[in-house]
Amino acid sequence: MISMWQSWCIKFIVWIQGLFVKPYRVEIVDGSLPRILKKHKLYILKEDSELWQASMVCPCGCAEILEMNLLPDERPQWEFTMDEERRASLHPSVWRQIGCRSHFFLKKGKIIWV
Ligand SMILES: [Zn+2]
User: Fold this and answer.
1) What does the pLDDT read at residue 21?
2) Which of the two ends of the chain, N or C, has the fewest CB atoms closer than 10 A to its terminal CB?
3) How far, in Å, is the centroid of ligand 1 from the Cα of 67?
């Protein structure tokens, strides 16, 4: 059993971390990706008013660029959402089968490792 005090401390630490961890925010780009991708951004590629791909720098630090298809007629397919502060969420989780094998969720701009 953890005491009330301990559970309060854990909540406090999570809250403090939330203040310093920069959330992933959505940036919609027309045409192609910028040459250098910023961290903490989920780039949404748009073509002819269609959002077709989400891209981000791998959060593990390996610097790979992850590309997630958003088109419903291609597999695998992800859905992205953003809130009023443009914080990004992706569904389902991102799981790299090659390289660093990162597996994480992106929820409200936060990386949640699996
Ligand atoms: Zn990685």
Assistant:
1) 82
2) N
3) 12
